[in-house]
Amino acid sequence: MSISMSSASLPILQAMLSNLSHFLDKAQADAEARKYDPAVLMQARLAPDMLPFTRQVLIACDAAKNGIARLAGVDAPKFDDVETTIPELKARIQKTLDFLATIPVDKIDGSQARDITFPTGRETTRTLKGDQYLQHNLLPNFFFHVTTAYAVLRHNGVRLGKSDYLVGANVI
Fold first, then answer.
1. 3 state DSSP class of 126
2. What percent of the chain is predicted at pLDDT more than 90?
C-alpha cells in the first residue's frame, strides 16, 4: 500500500515543529530554574563552524514552509529572519504551522512525479521528482536542523530526552 505525499509530509513536519516549540519551552524553564539569561542559548553551537541555535530553528521553519510550498506548487510566505528570543522563535514556528495548515492536501497529493526545482546554494539549483525531493532533501534537511537544535540545547544542559524529541509522535 502506498501513502500519499501529503500524509508523508504535512503531519511529520507539523509534529516536529510542535516538538521544536516544546524544546523552546524546556529551554525557557531551564533558564528560569538555573537562573541564567536564555539569550545565551540563542548563539550557542556545537562546533565553531556551524550555525548557531537560532539559525537552526529558522532554517527548520524555512525547510518546512518552502518544501511544502514547492510540493503544492504555491508561493511560500517570506519571513524576515529577525527572531532573537525564545518567544520570537516560538512565534516563527507558529507562523510556519499556520502556513502549513492553509495548504490543501490535494495540492500536495500527486506531486510525486512533478519536477521540483530548489536552491542548493546561492546560485545553484537542483531538480528532483516530488517523491525524491521529499525523501532525499526536504525531510532529511528538516530533521538535520531540528536535531541540531535539540543537540545544542542538550549540550548546554537543557533537560531534554528522547521523549521530548518524539512528543508529537504520540499522536500515532
1. strand
2. 95
Q: Does pTM top 0.85 for this prediction?
A: yes
**What does the alpha-carbon distance between residue 146 and residue 120 come to, in Å, rounded to a whole number?**
19
Going by C-alpha positions, the residue among 73, 83, 61 that lies closest to residue 17 is: 61
Model pLDDT for residues 14-59, shown as the tens digit of each residue: 999 999 999 999 999 999 999 999 999 999 999 999 999 999 999 9
The count of residues in the chain is 172
- Would you say residue 172 has pLDDT above 50? no
Residues 42-68, buried b or exposed e (16+ Cβ, 10 A)? bebbeeeeeeebbbbbbbbbbbbbbbb
Provide CATH code, domain 10-167.
Answer: 1.20.120.450
The CA distance from 100 to 61, in Å, is 10
Would you give the end-to-end CA distance of the chain in angstroms? 18
4 CB-contact burial (10 Å; exposed 0-12 / middle 13-18 / buried 19+): middle
Domain boundaries, the chain: 10-167
